[in-house]
Amino acid sequence: MTAGPVRVARDGVVFVVEPDWSDAREIQFWNAYAQGWERGTLAAIAEFLPPGGVHLDIGAWIGPTLLFAAARAREAYGFEPDPAAFAKLRRNVALNPALAARIRIKRAALWIRDADLSFAVSAPGDSTTSAMLRQGEVPALTAPAFDARGPAIAPLLARADFVKMDIEGAEFDLVPHIADLLAARRPALHLSFHAHRLDKTDPAAWAAKQRACVAALACYPRVLAWDEGAWRDISDERDVAYERALSRDGLEASLLYTASGPRASA
């Protein structure tokens, strides 16, 4: 890669981004994206977001999955609360006019109420910005949050075909909050779990959060896990898979919740 805007390609989707060439982590990320970053996430979008569908990217960061999905979607919505990440997201969207016509972005989090949320930040614009402050963490920024059941967001969830949620621990609050909206539409839900972000000093409270999340996801008849280059139906093992996802201390784990199973291999 050289200085200035560059074209990146993955799985037949090409778009333009302009990395901060002074940020080695960002350069490394876009190189990793081109070489196979999060194969499962992009494969889920390619398989379960129907052409001309509606995509919601909750935790859009600097835009890799949002731009990828917009090549397929009729409408794509991205929500990112970190101002440094959002500035890069807005720039990357603007560099792709054909995709930008389908994209709407907002510097905000989705949450259980309208609020100004405090976030822990390891570095400005980092992908691990989290509203789940652990003991000893000092809030580094405040950002607006929309109630996901409110008039601005609920209609989007009511039309969504695919939801990608990667919100660094807040999923344990947000998923139960929108349980009925998910049940009504059952959009494909690519959900990243970040159990390591949560305070588990109160075992009863932590167990209650887990139960609420499990109950909210029960509306989905299919649960898929990325395994050896394909999404595998593990619906009969859903409880075990959920426990496994929560046990990855310090790591995120993703599962895909759908109304139908994966396409049969050719």
What do you see in this structure?
- The protein has helices at residues 24-35, 39-48, 64-70, 83-94, 97-100, 154-159, 171-177, 179-185, 203-217, 238-246, and strands spanning 6-10, 13-17, 54-58, 75-79, 103-106, 109-111, 115-119, 141-147, 162-165, 188-193, 222-227, 230-233, 253-258.
- It is globular and about 50 Å long.
- The mean pLDDT is 92.
- A hairpin with a 2-residue loop joins β11 (222-227) and β12 (230-233).
- The chain has ten helices and 13 strands.
- By secondary structure, the protein is of the alpha/beta class.
- It has a single domain (38-258), classed as Vaccinia Virus protein VP39 (Rossmann fold, 3-Layer(aba) Sandwich), CATH 3.40.50.150.
- Helix content is 33%, strand content 24%.
- Strands 5-4-3-9-10-13-11-12 form an eight-stranded mixed beta sheet, with helices on both faces. A three-stranded mixed beta sheet has the order 6-8-7.
Count of β-strands: 13
Number of domains: 1
Instruction: Count the DSSP helices.
Output: 10
Distance between the termini: 36 Å
As for the CATH topology, it is Rossmann fold
Strand composition percent: 15-25%
Report a brief summary of the structure:
It contains 10 helices and 13 strands. It is an alpha/beta fold and 266 residues long.
Task: Give a quick set of tags describing it.
single chain; 266 residues; alpha/beta; Rossmann fold; 8-stranded mixed sheet; 3-stranded mixed sheet; 10 helices; 33% helix; globular
Secondary-structure map:
Layout: E1 6-10, E2 13-17, H1 24-35, H2 39-48, E3 54-58, H3 64-70, E4 75-79, H4 83-94, H5 97-100, E5 103-106, E6 109-111, E7 115-119, E8 141-147, H6 154-159, E9 162-165, H7 171-177, H8 179-185, E10 188-193, H9 203-217, E11 222-227, E12 230-233, H10 238-246, E13 253-258
Parallel strand pairs: 3-4, 3-9, 4-5, 6-8, 9-10
Antiparallel strand pairs: 1-2, 7-8, 10-13, 11-12, 11-13
Helix pairs in contact: 7-9
